[in-house]
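In keeping with the milestone schedule agreed at the kick-off meeting, the structural modelling team has produced records for the first pair of proteins. Each record is given below as a sequence line and a structure-token line. The laboratory manager (R.T.) confirmed that both were archived under the project's standard naming scheme.
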Amino acid sequence: MSSVGVTTYLKDYQAPEYSILTTQLQFALFDDYTAVTAELNFKRNGEHSAPLKLHGQQLKLVSIELNGVPLSAEHYSLDDEFLTIHTVPAEFTLKTSVHIEPHKNTALEGLYRSRSMYCTQCEAEGFRKITYYLDRPDAMSSFTTRIEADKTLYPLLLSNGNLIAQGELEQGRHFATWQDPFKKPAYLFALVAGDLACVQDSFVTCSGRAVALKIFVEAKDLDKCDHAMASLKNAMQWDEQVYGREYDLDIFMIVAVDDFNMGAMENKGLNIFNTSCVLAHPATTTDAGFARVEGVVAHEYFHNWSGNRVTCRDWFQLSLKEGFTVFRDEEFSADMLSRTVKRVESVNLLRTAQFAEDAGPMAHPVRPSSYMEISNFYTLTVYEKGAEVVRMVHSLLGKELFRRGTDMYFSRHDGQAATIEEFIACMAEVSGRDFSQFMHWYNQAGTPEVEFSGRYSQQEQRFYLTVRQSCPSTPEASAAQKQPLVIPIQMGLLGPTGAYPLHCAELNTSSATNGVIELTQPEHTFIFEQVPNVPVPSLLRGFSAPVKWHYPYSKADLLTIVLQDEDGFNRWDAMQQYAVRLIGEINTALTAGNTAAVDADFLEACRALLINETLDPAMVALMLDLPSEAYLAEQQNPMDIDGNHRAREFLRSALAEHLLPLWHQVYTRLLDTGPFSARAEAVARRSLKNLALSYIAAVDNSTHAPISPAHIVAAQFNSAANMTDSLAALKIAVNSPFGALQAQASTMLEEFFTRWQHEPLVVNLWLSTQAAAASGALKRVQTLLTHPAYDGKNPNKIRALVGVFSQNLTQFHAASGAGYEFLARQVVSLDQLNPQIAARLIAPLTKWQRQNPARQALMLAQLRWIAGHPLSNDLFEVVTKSLPADNRAG
């Protein structure tokens, strides 16, 4: 464990004093230990006589040699974090032998044993738990890896690159040697040893090379790999067509592992995946699961260029590879499925989770300036907001110039560890733009806030759009210190019968009715000419900048956008804004003890969407699904968790009762009649069908229909031919406040578990459904902690149960504070086993500032209780930064 509380700063970066030209590794796997021998060829960088300082943690040093000569104790020093060799020549070979204990590695960093197999996770700083090394991204080397193990137990021995040798050894052991021809940092190293089955295919690249594709899984999961393989081939083809990137090795491998801290890892040529991100089958995987597999497979494959061939110079540049690659995988998914639906999903995540991160104690820029523990900065800010920043570059340059910029970036920095400045410099060079102000997006924390106001002159036939920007205070800077950003605003102007042509001298890019204006000042007024009537501005189309924004729309204006806008995202967003406004009005009325009502215009708009069978069912489902309670809470300070829940349920019930015959019609029309398909059209039909079912079940009687809601839900659960429909019915029953459905829920949960108890990923869905229950969730979760299906060392199980409960707003934030106490005890216990997961799990407790005073006091009490324990560096950083300044440790 690294020193607790030590801060690393971007400003202190220095290039490595030594380069590792070649790395030769030998692994000998035994039951109670693994012997690792590393032979490293070094070269001094520049003229100096600095000692060689190598990272190393939890290693037992067996031997050490310099240029073939054993070193005695006076030639080196050793502590918990470093091996320091006091004097070395300009060029030399260092050979070390260490012993490690993968079977005891519950942190799942470095080399560890997951059930009956060995695997690695070296990003960010796990390689130092394998051998002594320069464990930093800018120390790049070519790797040759020899693995030996018992052949019966571990017939499969894998590492990065191409297989160059294999053979038999004495005592039933065997070996395999892999060579990676491309230089890489240690964080991209991978090793797998186990007894796994393989699904094989091939891909012919644009230059005619045949690449072998292999997915390794447990034998029972062989039938769950087809979607991942198809996604991989689609991603390879897409990357050639859109970015001109061809795969460079003769083999590409994926290994599925159930014990994994992350979603997946892009190790060169040997991607290691959480099983949840590679296994998919209609019977066991929801549509959301299928989409996740497709997106993650693509993301890790795209890293071959945006992360591997060109890596990041230091961990402060993490978004250089992650933000850029998230943008790439989102665009791929948009092309594979529905572009608007994918955009809505991405923005929903940003608004509910990343905006909350920006407003919390761990807020940091896309490129942080400091950290105590780098694992804490694998955040939505680095990934999702980082992707939005890249998206803005794409928007400002256009598709053609952006492609030229990426071509230059990949060509110029191939085989290098690069910086964000070098990426942006390529964009500036191909476009001639000055990006100096744009760089504030990378260096400034917080979610910008944009205020719009409009003024129309009938005499001039002009529309004046005034835009103001600001950014709230965050831990690293006050609001007054924040610099104005470059904010691209994609927009149009709508009239009574359609869109008006745009005439504005300051348009960046434009079609007749769609254009981009750029706000670069704290305040600016844009003038639109030849506007015949008062327009309704359609702003930030496609969510063209990651900001919070406001325009004083009337409800009629919002309906104009819903019904007329050419931009699908803004149609959805206008519906969300209308619903948020309604929920607020209902909440105010109910809190005052008054009668609440729902606008007839809103109900009619919903009716119009439902009866229009020409619309994409996926878009209709998105527009009629009310804003989540997490999104509602994110708009408030303090959060009104209970009021939001009550008002949202009121509106949901009103929609259900008012449109009940239509919900029945839609449900019946969209019932599946053929074989399962994961294509966009089929996914869209299921999404609207299951939304309709949820509204049908929100009515507590059968007076409107000959068949009761409980009967329909049970019928779908019993007859469902896919996990999407089965799980939808189960969730509806578990969350119903009505007696008939409540009576069925326990039986359905029992039947679901009995049917799927041997499928770990489905068991996770079963756990999550109960953790997210609308009532009694904490009691359910506490009981499930002792259930045989729960494993308190498995990150997937922890996230499915404890993690989901902590996101269950009304249950986690119960007035008693029991939810806070439960989470605090889970975090402290877990910190001893897996600090990374513990530090991520605590996030809901850190967001106490926007709760009411009573909840603040309860949450702070638990944070202080946690702070009173010995903590890992991961958890110490989060807790310390979350407490008020006068409560922080020194």
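The second protein of the pair:
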Amino acid sequence: MNGIDAPARLQASDLQEDIRRHLMFTVGESVDNARLSNWRIALSHAIRDRVVEPWFRTGQQTAQNASKRVYYLSLEFLIGRLLEDAVMNLGLEEAARKALAAFNVDYDLVVADEPDAALGNGGLGRLAACFLDSLSTVGVPAFGYGIRYHHGLFKQRFDNGWQIEEAEDWLTQGHAWEFERLNASMEIGFGGHVSIDGEGRHYWHPSEIVRARAYDTPIPGWQGKWVNTLRLWSAQSKDVFDLEPFNRGDFIGAAASNILAETISRVLYPDDTTPAGRRLRLKQEFFFTAASLRDLIARFLRANDDLRDLPNKAAIQLNDTHPAIAAPELVRILIDEHSLSFDDAFQVARGTLNYTNHTLLPEALEKWSVDLVAETLPRHMQIIEQIDAVHRQEIAATGRTRSPACCIIENGNVQMGSLAFISANRVNGVSGLHTDLMKKTVFEDLHTLHPEKIINQTNGVTPRRWLRGCNPGLSHLITESIGDGWERDLDKLSGLKSFAKDAAFQEQFRAVKRANKERLAVSVKDVLGLTLNPDAMFDIQIKRIHEYKRQLMNILEVVALWNAMKRNPEKDWPARVRIFGGKAAPGYAMAKQIIKLINDIANTINNDPDTAGRLTVVYVPNYNVSKAEMLIPAADLSEQISTAGMEASGTGNMKFAMNGAVTIGTLDGANVEIKDHVGDDNIFIFGLTAPDVAQLRIDGYVPHDAIHASPALSEVIHQISSGVFSPDDAGRFSGLVENISLHDWFLVAADFQAYHDTQRTVDAAWLDKPTWTHRAIMNTASMGWFSSDRTIRSYAHDIWRVDPAF
């Protein structure tokens, strides 16, 4: 496949004129009266103009070459801000700065005005965004498919330390990057019944039909040589408006169908602790998956006749179980609408679909009750039963005994993980350890039956967004030291190893880090009123709040450190700033308790004159991509402390290391591979391994014994129980204390002392500045393998069977 030439260099004067034109004719504002948001929209349209031509050329070349396309289905795409990313990828930053400066407008303020696209939650969505960037950078023809959430996840704020969820309003602030595709609308059905004619043909008669409207966002790769598409679906009522009840004065009834339809694309991850919430989640997943399948099939049929050839022209990647309903929907379309036999249809599905697993937690592998699926998607329930029956026959043919884990339908539930596995051509884990554990835990029985299916594809992150864009100081230093081109070929970072012990380079490296910390300190002061010492160690844990990620262990260790500082005030304690960020799912009570505990402890410690300036605790509200872009470059220590065997991979660990942070962590997820690449001396590993965890549970773990064995932890637990951090309500955290003392499934107590001891090793290492800086440089220099470009090339070769253009 031949590549596409990069766009020609743009003069600042040309861009200036385009900004003026869009300000007048797109925004409808004059230069004299324009506000910051007006300048942002005008600049965004001017940059988008430069993306459209290579976008069209990408599509034309793909069609001319009859190239196989990749379709990446994900419930989340955490793309963050798009303007700065596009400017960087097109190499237009200097031109954009000069063009805006001609209007006396600050470029940095303009790009900061863009709201984060509220299309994701955490690592799953950010991985999908990195993959879009890399698919375009290496030149793989691809569509990303997801939902255009009106509100997204939620906006987080704290009220007296408790998380409060508020609706996100990103779309109301102007989104300049999308193109609405009215001719690509799809009608998606729910409910109803199935009839069968005399020839045995099935007909689904939905009782509810929702229109899926397509919105396309072009995603340019590095230097703008290739531009793929993110197509997001918005749910709308099939009927324009019900005038009859309106004329009767029933204004709410007139709008009811619109409201119900639009609910589907309103919020990411609605609370599924209620029957209505579960039904909405299932409808969301089917809505975007069905629309995407119909769209890609229509594209296939414009150039091909026989749908049996679909696996040779399309590779569909299911990002987690959310789009697993693709299997019965694809089979249904092929049988009911294109007259294929079930055997042929299922063979096409198995040749086209691939499934990425992201969790080893059985409860995180979605299950829907048979009754819910049958009520919501009656035809699909029939097909799921057929797929399950076929797989049972396959098991019987081997002579093996069928286990519940091998069945799609079990105990009145449809097991979506099993459905995805059985219906996929390839199933991949996202780190070496995770893939190995998949074969031994959640998919052990299925792996025995299908030993060829599971392969590993260790995650990666895009170095454009997560180094070049978010850390310009370090990027400049890298280019100055080893030359350019590393943004596309991250292995070139290994050239930094020769500078790792160079005193002058170390000084420059530390200066970049300090500048990043100063920038973060200004933001924290503005938002929280806290003054941070940029010479302190910035120790950061930012990720969604979940018990297995063990933010609880982190904050308990903070208290243990505080106690030690107060007992030994004369000791040479290195100053620390412990920073947290992340959201708890609205229905996750324990995670919300942990957030409240962190904020209560922060309130106590930050107001203690005995440790002022030496220990500060910060919880950054409303953590998102833009905040990550500020926090990660400022980190000295990266907290990756999940219970071993529970973190599938992680990508935050890669971003931190890429930006010169040293990791403290367990041998979990991609930490194992990071350790292999950076070397044992440049990472702080502690705690139980995955086999240790499994054996401890077999032996019968007693949390009380682990607490009793650690005086530091015992003291902290007593302080929390007695209300030291909650004097207004001494029993506030009794449930949390009871959970760790009696159950402790995530082994906080078991790993606490090892974590605490390793943190003291970190203290000593921090005081040796040349050695610490050497460690930090070696982390950046060793991150070449963790580029998402490498990951995508591996997917292309091992799973999708496509040839990248570059």
